[in-house]
């Protein structure tokens, strides 16, 4: 055993004011854990410690333990309310421990870690919330994130104009559940205000016992604290976020409430963006419905089929259009197929096609006289202030026995091609001037008879002018279209348009292209009429 | 003998439907399905083991040149209407499972597998939005935002559409919707579905419907296409794809110099050769995209098989590959793919006839 007196002599000079009054606590102990000396700062920290006493009895356990282990490393621990790094300085058999106060650094470090976690969470949350423009999906993401990071469970409510509120609730570790709540939001203090966008009510004002049953997810248990946070939208309230903590967890701190509000700002922005998108999408859908190409089907024993691909892949409409109308003429009932191409692309062109299609519908009683109908349309368009023109082809179709009789008239449009049953391809002998430019138009119509399995194909120039092919810069051209049609003898109308559109699209590959429309009029093969129509109810359901 | 799900006479029904669709008889085709349903056949089995089986046979017979293009299209169109009939006469359950969007990869023309899956999912009680073939990714994504489905089922049969499929998968995931992929394009073991980051893969409609009964995992936010395929950073795929037309032109010119017979080709023959070359470049680009040499070698082996069947020696592909290799000498991954494929073709022991 070391002699305490001898060791003490080797210890720092305890009589020196520099040591005794040092601002950093220091205490010296021998190999046996007996205190040899300590300065004033150390005495303040460990009031019962003194020379001759055992470390184990008088100082913090972590320090006494480190001394016994003789590890020689810096150890960290707390004494009183403060945190210290204890640096051992060995001299002989004794060790002097210098206790550097790092409480402030520790607090700052903890705060930094917490802030980093929050920043990461907010960044992840933003990414997750921004992904979807669907309101229910956004609410699910918000509820899940809130339940994972802010509370034990979360309830997200969206404002409503009806009596039921769209809601998503989520318990930590579980899947979010959608519901529609028929509630009075004022039953939960603060919720009514939050849904109207008033400032949040601090959580301590909420009595968990007063919370109505619909706030609690099933089998959640006793609620400890509740926070209601408004979700701020773009100028309007986007909804409210209700955070729930179980009974055994401490209530929300000011920091946590502030943080919940930061999250709510993001969730609210995402939810209101989703609401705006849904509103716009429904407006677009309504306006677009009239402009979309119709679904064609067999009519009066004649097969009709159409395909349309707009110039811009992101859009569903453009400057090409087609329709098939039932009409009554002095010669009896028939169908009028119309295919046209207005100048220009995109929405402006689509709006013009809408006007032309409406005008044509009004002119249907004249469908027996193609030239007369086109002349009237020409006058209507040419009178317009912003003169825009259209090329058209009209085909009146009527079934006669197994054949289909057609009257075809072109106005500034490529003449239709006719595929005979043996694969020959002919051009309909019709031509005429385009519509909407000159005060008078000239047209020459043609009569065509289709035998069963034969098709008359109406198309817009987007098909033949498609650029691409294996070399990347060749036009699809009329020759290739005729060659493709040769293979289409005896195909149903639907298969013909599908094949032509497929070949043109494959020709284009990744390249840019114009609007492309095709419409096939086919005399059906076989004796059965509309045995299995794709759309009518058919004989099986009669 | 029968099992509860496979009613007796499946093969018989399939045979009758085959006769009806190949003779272009819609009326008879509709009758086959109506009668089978009346006899108490299982609807799912009718869809997959009768209509689906007939459609597969149509594809095989067409590939084997035993059906004309017109017959193939007519048969498909009739099958399509038969499925529509099916929808009218059969009572489907009210949707009580999740909502699923069924779509084909853009540029895909084989819509039938997706259509069959949509019908099977409806029968099982899913709420289904069937978007069909030729859906540009922006439309699909807009649809996802509008409807917020639980999953997207993406169908693809053409391997060269894999880059597009990848863009579509990533776009769906960015819209917080998980994707289940299926179809021949994703490989017989679904390897490309995994590679492109799809949440799930299914070999057929039944297993897809089974898999969708459990929710798919949530997609990760902030996922980028480059995360799945870091090799794309070398730009080889991009550069080969963008210069495809020029590559075909140079190889065509080089072939005319090397192969005297080509100088007397008709315009149509020249066009066919150009189309074949464009196809080779397209498969090369796809192999560069997925970083899988087998995709390219498999395609060439299959092409060689077809050439041999037409009486053209498969070795005729070698000069084209050599010329391509010379054109692409600055692209290490491309040249290595071309060299491997050439070695493979030159050594018939490696060739086993069937495509990958």
State the total count of DSSP E strands of chain A.
Answer: 23
Instruction: Give me the side-by-side strand order of the main sheet of chain A.
Output: 12-13-14-15-19-18
For the termini of chain A, the CA-CA separation is 111 Å
Query: Overall mean pLDDT score of chain B?
Result: 87
* Distance between the ends of chain B: 34 Å
Unreliable spans of chain A are 1-11, 527-542
Computed over alpha carbons, the radius of gyration of chain A is 42 Å
Structural class of chain A: alpha+beta
Task: Give the beta-strand count of chain B.
Answer: 5
Q: Topology as H/E string of chain B?
A: HHHHEHEHEHEHEHHHHHHHH
Task: Provide the residue-averaged pLDDT of chain A.
Answer: 86
Walkthrough of the structure:
The complex is a heterodimer of chains A (about 550) and B (about 350). Helix content of chain A is about 35%, strand content about 30%. With about 550 residues, chain A is of the alpha+beta class. Chain A has a six-stranded antiparallel sheet, covered by helices on one side. In chain A, strand 9 (about 225-230) and strand 10 form a beta hairpin. In chain A, helix 6 packs parallel to helix 9 (about 255-290). The radius of gyration of chain A is 42 Å and the shape is elongated. The termini of chain A are far apart. Residues about 1-10 and about 525-540 of chain A have low confidence and may be disordered. Chain B is α/β, with parallel strands linked by helices and about 350 residues long. Helix content of chain B is about 60%, strand content about 5%. Chain B has helices at about 10-20, 25-40, 45-65, 70-90, 110-125, 135-145, 160-175, 190-195, 205-210, 225-230, 235-240, 245-260, 265-290, 295-310, 315-325, 330-345; strands spanning about 100-105, 125-130, 150-155, 180, 200. In chain B, strand 4 (about 180), helix 8 and strand 5 form a beta-alpha-beta unit. In chain B, helix 12 crosses helix 13 and helix 13 runs antiparallel to helix 14 (about 295-310). The two termini of chain B are about 35 Å apart. Residues about 1-5 and about 350-355 of chain B have low confidence and may be disordered. The interface between A and B is large, with 51 and 53 residues.
